[in-house]
Amino acid sequence: MSIADTPVPAPVDLTIAEVRLTPILVADPPLLNTQGVHQPYTPRLIIEVVTADGVTGVGETYGDTKYLDLARALAKRLEGHRVDGLNALFALADEVHVDAARVENSVDVGGLRGVQTADKLRLSVVSGFEVACLDALGKATGLPVHALLGGKVRDRVDYSAYLFYRWAEHPDGAGEPDDWSAATDPQGVVEQALRFVRDYGFRSFKLKGGVYEPEREIAAIRALAEALPGKPLRLDPNGAWSVPTSLKVAEELRDVLEYLEDPTSGTANMAEVAAAVDGLPLATNMCVTTFQEIPEAFTKGAVQVVLSDHHYWGGLHRTRELAAVCRTFGVGVSMHSNTHLGISLAAMTHVAATVPQLDHACDSHYPWQTEDVITERLAFRDGAVAVSDAPGLGVTLDRDKLAALHQRWLDDDGTMRDRDDAAAMRKAEPGWTAPAVPRW
Ligand SMILES: O=C([O-])C(=O)C[C@H](O)[C@@H](O)C(=O)[O-]
Ligand SMILES: [Mg+2]
């Protein structure tokens, strides 16, 4: 048979025929941070794009009302576009109006996610659509998402254990129970870390700090260093400390920390700390969360590792662009995580598999989530997730689970539909307001 006789496969119609948005509430344990405590349930948004050929791609992003409203407006514009027209998504999102009151002078979730701008809000929504389009494109062409991003450079992506100070249960026993104990002191933190090793094989450890006075958190890191000798450790108080406090903690822990994450708030303060602590890198998911923040932070030497997050940065292609900028400036790159489900973990794993200079294990909240919307949860083995070579993301939506979590969202009176860690804290401490920074 000559080449001319080779049958040409029928063209695939990649036109988007339908977009489905399903807001859900997912169980979340009582994890403490400097703002307060996680609510019993947290909102997420599941996005499905269906092509004219009936191929469905899935994506996931924040589900709070301001994201959901924007997603609804964007979804309307998407029908008739193609799942391989990813660059056009950004122009479409720019057409969607963001109410200034939603972002003016504001920081997201009390500052945990850095600045909140109209642009960043749009990008966080676009990210879920981009992932859904990539999943559909992969399924339509038989290619895994990593191949659509240029191909994997590793077969497994390392994640770190995300340790939290936590209570055994939510105030008044609200939410879904889990089988984790309280962890409010060094011994509790070490026990939590050892379970993460037993159950998942994690080999690096991050403690969410900014909860207790720095001396108590230094003691927890020291206890971890003793229990897990030589393992990379990180501490992240979400910008709760002053420059002098950051310098003191850095001095006391420099021999055991892989990096110190957002010890203090703002690029100028981070730069001051970075200049004074020789040899201990500073990481951030707070002062560099947009491309606009890069020039100042990099020229001042404020951060040595950027914790990317495809939700903030506008998807998987933009995450690779961020990695290229970091590579150019000799800044390390790793990955931040908020409460998320398996669709996002799959997306994180695909993009992480394609970034050459991923020198640090990525963060993931996933072990804290006992609920999911996919048929088979992703597994951590030896602290890593295997990179899927199945078409698309390699996950399958479980419609019954999705419907159940959506029903919970429908039944909620509105209190859980927007994440508010300070409000959740008031259930235990009625006068609580999120502390001003620096807290210590
Ligand atoms: O700085 C970080 O790594 C985070 O902000 C991750 C999460 O938001 C975490 O702090 C949380 O959910 O409490
Ligand atoms: Mg952080």
Short structural summary:
This protein is of the alpha/beta class. It has 14 helices and 14 strands.
Defining traits:
440 residues; alpha/beta; Enolase-like, domain 1; TIM Barrel; 7-stranded parallel sheet; 3-stranded antiparallel sheet; 14 helices; 35% helix; binds 2,3-dihydroxy-5-OXO-hexanedioate; binds magnesium ion
Q: What do these coordinates show?
A:
The protein has 440 residues and is α/β, with parallel strands linked by helices. It folds into two domains: 142 residues, Enolase-like, N-terminal domain (Enolase-like, domain 1); 249 residues, Alpha-Beta Barrel (TIM Barrel), CATH 3.20.20.120. Strands 7-8-9-10-11-12-13 form a seven-stranded parallel sheet. Strands 1-4-5 form a three-stranded antiparallel sheet. The protein has a two-stranded antiparallel ribbon with strand order 2-3. Helix 2 packs antiparallel against helix 3, helix 5 packs across helix 6 and helix 6 runs parallel beside helix 7. The mean pLDDT is 95. Magnesium ion (MG) binds next to loops.
